[in-house]
């Protein structure tokens, strides 16, 4: 009988160590994948990937009559009449592209460079850090002032990443609980 209790205590300690190691190593990796996929999904949704989040503010290049309608640096297509109000092109340079009027928000020149710039910086020892190496990610994510064509302009916030860990989305909370349960069940089943 004493032997069974010793083995039980030993097994319990081993299981506790295995769960602790999982929380330090396997769980952060699983959570990092959930976060990166969730942040990247913002582009499909055209809003931050969280419950109750508002759609991103429309870009001026898609608003007919706005001076930026159809804007794409270096494009040479003719501007439709009235598309940019009363603007007259300078020396035949229109900077107009019909594709720019339909391209999704934050897709630059039709590429997904900003979206693909999101990566796992660290996912170990109980810590998860998601980052981006894009120079203009911060201004898009947080909004604020920037310089363009010699003028200071205001960029509206189009959040695609969550900054503060105390504001984590329901998506992460729901998925994390499922991942924790799965990891713990795997550990317990492997101990039997």
Write the layout of secondary structure elements.
Layout: H1 2-24, H2 26-45, H3 113-116, E1 118-124, E2 127-132, H4 137-142, E3 144-148, E4 151-155, H5 170-191
Antiparallel strand pairs: 1-2, 3-4
Describe this protein's structure.
The chain has 192 residues and is α+β, with helices and mostly antiparallel strands. The chain has 2 domains: 22-57 and 105-192, no CATH class; 59-104, no CATH class. 39% of the residues lie in helices and 12% in strands. The chain has 5 helices and 4 strands, in the order H-H-H-E-E-H-E-E-H. The strands form 2 sheets. The protein has a two-stranded antiparallel ribbon with strand order 1-2. The protein has a two-stranded antiparallel sheet with strand order 3-4. Strand 1 and strand 2 form a beta hairpin. Helix 2 runs antiparallel to helix 5 (170-191). The protein is rod-shaped and about 90 Å long. The mean pLDDT is 78.
Number of strands: 4
Largest beta-sheet details = 2 strands, antiparallel
Task: Report how far apart the termini are.
Answer: 19 Å
Outline: rod-shaped
Strand content: 5-15%
Structure in a nutshell:
The protein is an alpha+beta fold. It has helices spanning 2-24, 26-45, 113-116, 137-142, 170-191; strands at residues 118-124, 127-132, 144-148, 151-155. The chain starts with a helix and ends with a helix.
Supply the key terms.
192 residues, alpha+beta, 2 domains, two-stranded antiparallel ribbon, 39% helix
